[in-house]
Amino acid sequence: MTRAERIKVLQLLKANDTELEKATQTEATDPSGKIINELELPPLSVFLDAVTENATVKRAQSQVEQVKNEYRLQKRDWLDYFRLNGNYAYGRFNTLSDNSETLVDWYQSTSVGSRHTFNVGASVSVSLSDLFNRPLRLKRYRYDIEQLQYTQEEVMEDRKLKVLNAYNAVTEQLATIKAKAESAALYNAQMKISENNFINGTIDIISLSLERGRRSTAVVQYEQARVSLHNAIILLEMLTNVKIIKDK
Q: Exposed, middle or buried, 220 (CB in 10 Å: 0-12/13-18/19+)?
């Protein structure tokens, strides 16, 4: 194979590698375009503390508070045993009366005045069944609150476990993606040397194909790690609402 033929073959091969070479650069970058080396993951405690802001956790907390309020109302219902009553009235009145005296015909008299009237009272009415069942009702509310608190703790623990797994996934990807990016960049550089050797006839097409295969494997591994990192970061952000990749 002449040099011109080798160059033509190489051009055909490189035409298929345009997109592949764009995928890797000398610097590894994350999906947002920010250099991975500059990406700082906040401490785990930041994400665990943010679990309390999750909607599922808030709903469990709300259920506990709702039953606690019902329990407070139930504890005060003994006030229903007592009744206070009172009324007040004020008004003017006219009195019309018929009168008679000896030797005097009947006659009518009218009197006008005003009057204030009021009364105040209290009463007690206790249902025996309500009185004896009251401790049991209060105890039932206490049990309900205790069970809901256990449920709330279970929700918190489950959420924290998911956050921990997502955080570990991001940490793992950050630890490996740089090495994979460097490996892909190294194979890109090696590929250029192999192409030059192929043009000069130092290596044959089989050796060049082997180098291309190694480079493709390294690039695919890097791209897979980049996608995995992106997915892990998005999952962690969704679980905690803590922004890791800041918007520019």
A: middle
